[in-house]
């Protein structure tokens, strides 16, 4: 039985610097995400993605290693449907003539599998609470 | 665990633990079993197995019935469909996004 994780790998005909720009600059993200994008791509930065169908996500930037790795947590607005909060990670590797990009998305709880089982639910609720409070601060700021 | 609001949250919470996935897999592969039978071959006590079975039960993945002095547990995997659906939906979104990214980057460089 697999971990609930989605993983995609793609080889791109562009240097890591160009791929990195496409992952972190809102005006470039908007094109391939087909969404309105606000993003402060620094550790602890916040963002917001509004897709064409109205689905909205709040984004927290967890880790930034320039041209190598970008880790985010994102979650849908309360009225945004049944999507659970998830961790999204982009890993860039230089290859001959371009860049290999690996994307993984996993529900927040699955990424917390190392926590002792008895504390998982509380860790999960705590995380949700922290995210919700942070989102409120972000939205009202 | 039972307090988690969303069925998908409960499902992923239940399946986040490797031992619970092992228990679930044994019930799926070998049919209904008691906690004692399940604890054979697992490096944990019967009591710990019971706890995991309750967590799986909260997510609707296991039900139980009493047979004499024993309780037998049975896999009820329907909720796993929701998780599979999440994975398919999420994967399809990334397929579409990454195809657009590939085209966007080849336009920029070429």
Please characterize this protein's 3D structure.
Chain A has 141 residues and is α+β, with helices and mostly antiparallel strands. Chain A has helices spanning 16-24, 26-33, 117-140; strands at 6-12, 35-39, 46-51, 56-65, 69-76, 86-95, 98-107. By secondary structure, chain B is of the alpha+beta class. Chain B has helices spanning 7-15, 18-30, 35-39, 46-58, 80-109; strands at 33-34, 62-67, 70-75. In chain B, strands 1-3-2 form a three-stranded antiparallel sheet. In chain B, strand 2 and strand 3 form a beta hairpin. In chain B, helix 1 packs antiparallel against helix 4 (46-58) and helix 2 (18-30) crosses helix 4 (46-58). Chain B is elongated, with a radius of gyration of 19 Å. The N and C termini of chain B lie far apart (52 Å). The relative contact order of chain B is 0.15. Classes of the chains: A alpha+beta (141), B alpha+beta (110). Chains A and B meet through strand 1, helix 1, helix 2, strand 7 and helix 3 of A and helix 1, helix 2, helix 4 and helix 5 of B.
Topology of helices and strands:
The complex is a heterodimer of chains A (141) and B (110).
Chain A: E1 6-12, H1 16-24, H2 26-33, E2 35-39, E3 46-51, E4 56-65, E5 69-76, E6 86-95, E7 98-107, H3 117-140
Antiparallel strand pairs in A: 1-7, 2-3, 3-4, 4-5, 5-6, 6-7
Helix pairs in contact in A: 1-2
Chain B: H1 7-15, H2 18-30, E1 33-34, H3 35-39, H4 46-58, E2 62-67, E3 70-75, H5 80-109
């Amino acid at each position: 039985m697999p971990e609930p994780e989605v993983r995609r790998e793609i080889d791109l005909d562009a240097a890591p610097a160009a791929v990195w720009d496409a992952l972190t600059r809102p005006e470039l993200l908007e094109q391939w995400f087909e969404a309105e994008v606000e993003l402060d791509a620094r550790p602890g930065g916040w963002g917001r993605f509004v897709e064409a169908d109205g689905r909205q996500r709040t984004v927290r930037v967890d880790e930034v290693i320039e041209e190598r790795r970008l880790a985010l947590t994102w979650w849908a607005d309360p009225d945004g449907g049944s999507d659970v909060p998830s961790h999204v990670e982009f890993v860039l590797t230089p290859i001959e003539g371009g860049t290999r990009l690996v994307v993984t998305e996993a529900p927040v709880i699955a990424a917390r599998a190392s926590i002792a089982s008895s504390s998982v639910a509380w860790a999960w609720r705590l995380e949700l609470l922290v995210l919700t409070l942070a989102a409120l601060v972000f939205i009202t700021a | 665990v039972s307090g988690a609001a969303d069925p998908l949250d409960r499902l992923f919470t239940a399946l986040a633990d490797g031992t619970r996935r092992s228990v679930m897999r044994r019930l799926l592969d070998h049919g209904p079993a008691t906690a004692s039978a399940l604890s054979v071959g697992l490096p944990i006590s019967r009591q710990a197995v019971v706890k995991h079975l309750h967590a799986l039960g909260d997510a609707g993945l296991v039900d139980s019935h009493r047979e004499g002095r024993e309780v037998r547990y049975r896999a009820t995997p329907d909720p796993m469909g929701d998780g599979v659906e999440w994975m398919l939906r999420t994967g399809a979104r990334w397929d579409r996004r990454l195809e657009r990214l590939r085209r966007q980057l080849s336009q920029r460089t070429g």
